Amino acid sequence: xxxxxxxxxxxxxxxxxxxxxAPAPDELPEPDEAARAxxxxxxxxxxxRLVRAADALFNNxxxxxxxxxxxxxxxxxxxxxxxxxxxxNTRFVSWSMAKTVTxxxxxxxxxxxxxxxxxxVPIPAWQRPGDPRGEITLRQLLQMRSGLRHTEAGxxxxxxxxxxxxxxxxxDDMSAYAEAQPLEADPGAKWEYSSATTVILADLAxxxxxxxxxxxxxxxxxxxxxxxxxxxxxxxxSMVPEFDAHGTLIGGSLIHGTARDWARFGEFLRNRxxxxxxxxxxxxxxxxxxxxxxxxxxxxxxxxxxxKQPDGAVQWPGAPSSTFSMNxxxxxxxxxxxxxxxxxxxxxxxQDNAHEPVRAALARIVTxxxxx
Length: 372
Known about the structure:
Blueprint: H1 33-37, H2 47-59, E1 66-73, E2 76-82, E3 92-93, H3 98-111, H4 138-142, H5 161-167, H6 174-179, H7 195-209, H8 215-234, E4 240-241, E5 255-257, H9 259-270, E6 274-275, E7 278-279, H10 283-289, E8 304-305, E9 324-328, E10 332-337, E11 342-348, H11 356-366
Antiparallel strand pairs: 1-2, 1-11, 3-5, 4-5, 6-7, 8-9, 9-10, 10-11
Helix pairs in contact: 2-11, 3-7, 7-8
């Protein structure tokens, strides 16, 4: 099987930190006609204010580089705009937004009876007598508290586990790399964000669907499961998941889709796993995903929550604590504010140390609409 092809390489150089707060939309130049055309005539809120808030994401240097913005209100597109060179049919890389897709697939497999949330996960290497990793449960993996020694965004970058796994010595069999790491804490005791953890979840999905170790079989079954059980029922026809040479979904970082399809996925989550009355995953599973991890109230199960992080920060200032989001490297966001029916998608390229102005600008939009 050919080695996985990655469309975007990680950035190993970090530029100077930008300012921490974005200027108010009223302080920016007057939006042009294209900016106004991106907002529907009757968006359900002051249109001029919404035009300015959306325009700020494209024309404020602190929120660069926004490439796509879609805002839904109760399922209706009220804002849709693309930067030059991008359009409705452009597939955007998910980066870590893929984690949420993987978690929903895991929820479907649990509902199918193929996996169990609070039992030791069936990783053969962990089942040897005396191996403490045999105590790790699916719940702990989903909530990023497995206790495994996975270092994300380390310094230097080439020693970080996600870089080694994706691009260096672990790239051909990513789950084997992730599963080979020892414990650094008791299972369940420590929260640590980890792309390698989500690749373990993707491996568990393949194992649940087939006992085969043939890469083509593993890839085909997971890809078809995603397509028939999730993507097609939601209407996400553009989605292209990537797999490694072992046939494991790169479920922590590499799924591609249009901005509209990412918005459809956000709407699916807003509706607690239902589409047109059909429940694709139990609503209780989405409730679990949006409930705080015991070791970090600002994180659920492969979703970010609008509650205080360990450093005291919140993701979406001014939004209710029930707001949640899918967050990806370089500023990929799908934000869901259930209190007013808003789903907002922002895709682009912003260095990871400069996301605060982007989040502030996006928070202005997701809180602009009245609560229902």
